[in-house]
């Protein structure tokens, strides 16, 4: 369960990072980014350090600094069931592909 939670926040973070980068590329300003991940929104609002996604959130904040106005807002998952279903489907596809244990080959 912990692994799935971490992978979930990583995927949500990567999606938000891509949305911020794309918005900058398209010169959209001001912008409002919405997510159903309250943890991700809190991390971005407080600059908190969470090791598993620190690089992702640092990128988000760095790219967002280029907007005249950017806000990160939480919204309930129930209000966006289609996106939630798509994210869960993607997790079910990707999770088996992640290597949990690796064996080092002898030299």
Please give the structural blueprint.
Elements: H1 2-25, E1 31-35, H2 38-46, H3 54-64, E2 70-74, H4 81-94
Parallel strand pairs: 1-2
Order of helices and strands: HEHHEH
Q: What portion of the residues fall into strands of 2 or more residues? A: 5-15%
Count of helical regions: 4
- Our measurement of the CA-to-CA distance between the termini, rounded to an integer number of angstroms, reads 35 Å
CATH superfamily: Ribonuclease H-like superfamily/Ribonuclease H
Give the domain tally: 1
**Arrangement of strands in the largest sheet:** 1-2
What is the C-alpha radius of gyration, as a whole number of Å?
16 Å
CATH third-tier fold name: Nucleotidyltransferase, domain 5
**Principal-axis shape:** globular
GO molecular function, one term: RNA-DNA hybrid ribonuclease activity
Protein name: RNase H type-1 domain-containing protein
Domain RNase H type-1: 14-88
Keywords: Signal
Describe the model.
This is RNase H type-1 domain-containing protein. Keywords: Signal. Residues 1-19 form the signal peptide. The chain is mainly α. The chain has a single domain, classed as Ribonuclease H-like superfamily/Ribonuclease H (Nucleotidyltransferase, domain 5), CATH 3.30.420. The relative contact order is 0.19. Strands 1-2 form a two-stranded parallel sheet. The longest helix has 24 residues, at 2-25. The chain is globular, with a radius of gyration of 16 Å. The protein has 4 helices and 2 strands; from the N terminus they run αβααβα.
